[in-house]
Description:
The protein has 98 residues and is α+β, with helices and mostly antiparallel strands. 30% of the residues lie in helices and 35% in strands. A five-stranded mixed beta sheet has the order 2-4-7-6-5. Strands 1-3 form a two-stranded antiparallel ribbon.
Amino acid sequence: MATLNEAKDALEIISGLIAPHCDRIGLAGSVRRNKRDVGDAELCVIGKPSLWPAVDELLATGVIGKASYGATGQQRWGKKYRGLTLPKFSFTIEIWRA
């Protein structure tokens, strides 16, 4: 669990890394609602074709990791969304539209 400020800081870092690969980035979930404690957060984006390759590169270089959810460690990984982590923080990038 992160504080609202920690979550905003983390999403600002990620937003900066993916901004060249997006037409639009918006905060969603607990951060958008300004909740005091944030378990994970969402970035909703209108991505360019280069978005997922850029995210894959961030994964390959260890900047971010794949998030595991729940007792089973399920991963959220699809064409329209990716569950990811920074140290001590999970977030999801979700496509608004292709």
